Amino acid sequence: MSTPVSNDKPPIYLLDSMAFIFRAYHAMQRQRPMSTRTGIPTAATYVFVNMINKLRRDFSPVYLAAVYDLSGPVFRDERAKEMKSVKKFNIKTQEFEEIDYLGYKANRAEMPADLAQQLPYIRRALEAFRIPILSYEGFEADDVIGTLSCKLAELGHKVFVVSSDKDMMQLVNASVSILNPTKDNLVLNPAGVEGVLGVPPERVVDVMALRGDAIDNIPGAPGIGDKGSVELIQQFGTVEGALDRADEVKKKTYRESLQNNRENILLSKELVTIHTAVPIGFDLEAMRTQALDNAACRELFSELEFTTLLKELAPSVNNAPIAYTLKPSDEEIAALLADARTVGDDGAVKGLTLAVFEDARALAEESGADVAGEEEVEVEPPPAENMSLFGGAAEPVVVAAEPVVAGALQMGVTTSDAGAMVVSLDAEGLRQALEDAALPKHVHDLKAVLRVLAAQGIALAGVRDDVMLYSYLINPTHGSHTLADVTARFTQRAMTPVVKAKAPTAAEVANLLPEAANATQRLAHTLREQVETAGLKDIYETMDLPLVPVLLRMEQAGVRVDPEFLRSMSSRLGVDVDNLAERIYADSGHRFNINSPKQLGEVLFTKMDLPKPMKYGKGKVVSTAQDVLEELALSHPIAALVIEYRQLQKLKSTYLDALPQLADAEGRIHTTFNQVGTATGRLSSTNPNLQNIPVRTTLGREIRAAFIAAEGNLLMSADYSQIELRLMAHFSQDPLLLDAYRTGKDIHTLTAAEVFGVDPETMSKEVRGRAKAVNFGIVYGISPFGLAAQLGIEQKEAKTYIETYFDRYKGVRAFIDETLETVRRDQAVRTQFGRVRPIPDIQSRNPNMRGFAERTAVNTPLQGTAADLIKLAMIRLDAEITRRGLKSRMTLQVHDELLFDVVPEESDEMQMLVKHEMEHVAEFSVPIVAEVGVGQNWRDIK
């Protein structure tokens, strides 16, 4: 009997470590696996650390300890040896079968290698959190937890066993509760245990003894499952009671199981019983929660690339910027504010601010770097030969600069809709430094820096390193390449958090600049070495870096639209949308918000009682996703109406209504091209996304008619023809594909003849269309299921098509097999030009993730090479257009297509120039073809 809990004594939390480690591992197996750039698996570690963080946040434990299992035999292994055989109930024959007993936990599979690899890191995490780790040889963690629970309860403490293991329920009493963080911090007291299991805590071992444990290979009573075990203990009180009165059991299976397995059932009870007298000592004060070891946490999180966790760490001396830092005085800040026309009433810097502080070295002798706490760190000035710039449209502070030449330069740039301006004590000196090509510079997001400086008439030159591009080249699969994220991933530092919802004050700018400059400086050297080591220097210098000013010029030029055309089309489409809505209301018998998935689901599946899908959306609401509606539409017309309604509504809101509002006074839309937004190497487009203008539907093509050239000019399009299939011929060296492209044969007609056995002379458009789907499907690793769905045929027929394709195009099969073999070895794939894409999921135990990784591995050399090819073409074209002094401009890139605003008298020259450069920018085994045409608008280009 435990001592009454004292209200004066804080509760103690005992963590069932391995239970949560396994839970974290298996939970992430259903998600996308996580790993570092070097391939270290990290998912279980990440989830476990986050669970510890959540526990600390939610409960602020005063005492906390983690209990671990040790490797090696435990006392249960010896006791289990007494069982030589056990009976198993055969459901089909309704008979008991005797089988050999293989031992305690014999059914447990070996720990997955990728989990075992993480255990040392999890242990390091606990040590960094200063959480004591408890264990005892010969006993399991459950026994250690049971013993400590009893001892601590006797001292008057409330004990929370942090676990998701049902076995722990036997420990619950007035002083001991179960806390399950994975169930929204569910706390089980004695009443809670009885509510969940149907018996009080003291009877849990009896229920467990009867039902057994397949994972731990505890046989229990064969034929008596979860329900039966509870019923028997509720009736007889204990296992012994049920065994002694087995003849009273009405159900034959239960009765015979009890009568014929007494010894094994009693031994099972012993095996499931948690021991509470392990001879383990403990130091209560050692369990007292301490502050994190920031240095150890930072080292671990940096090593494992836990960017978010790094950001959450408190600033420390180790995290302080150690650059040559100079902060302006209050008087200097006041002077800046007085001179800045774009400073708001709240004192926030709204525009672009550049500040030069002279005599910085003299001032620096009197000051050190300010860091968290009261400690001061003396720092040495960094080399003066480089200037560091920090840029990014999503960051409040976008440019920082380090000392240069004899003086010193500290510069800040902020961007906003208010515009940009320069405030400088020596503007001309600033310009000279920035435009000096002999002065090497480091930047983060060169395009953003070029944009804001160009607005001031400053032509930045001499940029050698862009750490954002470096980061992307090293691992394009990372979702973010902001300076803060790059710093966290590649160093042991986390930058000072910045609230992006508001513009920073001048004082905040002054505080952040040295840190940003220092981070960029350090990253430039570190990442340049990594890029060179990885063999990525050439692609950086010949492609990614020189593409930046090309993209900026395209953004500045913009693409022109006809706002009146869009408004007129929107008005017409609005009538169609309203008519569809009325038909949906009439068919359903209800008026509701069709755009609300929740309301739509209620109408379709509750009020109309249509067949519910086996799929749920967010919040466990029945899904109304496109695939669900498509299946429903086969037998219920209202679903087809909803699909059409959504399509028209999306076209109207996304394009017809939005684009006119984004156009400038000349009707031009200035999108932003992102170099680091995709894992494939392709460019992406945002604000707005102009790479997603529909082309496959009649209405989608109609929208393209709104894209026009400048007054009096022509719009020209240049589109690579079947580029990925041509690259497949190059990579696979398949004789049929090589011959087809070298002799100008139609590849889809060829495939139809080879795969379907159809005579090209009598071939219909439908058959050629099917062959086209097969050709492009193979490039994207399509499955029989996917091809069947796309063509509307049986899966068996689709499987035959794919098999026949590989039988005819043996080179393609060999290319795919060789690529997969290489990627399984390297866990990465390269494009023709050397761009690398990590594919860690190629080794995933999850078949869905592994399958996706395999498709990605095959497609990346094709899609990635195509992306690199058009980038090189853009660089060459931009340079040649400039060299020739042409007035025509490149305005848009949409994957394999380029758009140009062309002066009529330059039309012929531009068509010849663009076609030649695109087709000859690199050499391949087959001809690369660019189809070029001109027209009054994008839709009508021929």
From TrEMBL:
Keywords: DNA damage, DNA repair, DNA replication, DNA-binding, DNA-directed DNA polymerase, Exonuclease, Hydrolase, Nuclease, Nucleotidyltransferase, Transferase
Protein name: DNA polymerase I
Superkingdom, natural source: Bacteria
Name of the top EC class for this enzyme: transferase
BP-aspect Gene Ontology terms: DNA-templated DNA replication; double-strand break repair
Function: In addition to polymerase activity, this DNA polymerase exhibits 5'-3' exonuclease activity.
GO molecular function: 5'-3' exonuclease activity; DNA binding; DNA-directed DNA polymerase activity
Family: Belongs to the DNA polymerase type-A family.
Reactions mediated catalytically: DNA(n) + a 2'-deoxyribonucleoside 5'-triphosphate = DNA(n+1) + diphosphate
Record EC number: 2.7.7.7
Native organism: Granulicella arctica
Stretches assigned to the DNA-directed DNA polymerase family A palm domain: 700-906
Keyword Nucleotidyltransferase attached: yes
5'-3' exonuclease domain span: 8-290
CDD domains: DNA_pol_A_pol_I_C, DNA_polA_I_Bacillus_like_exo, H3TH_53EXO, PIN_53EXO
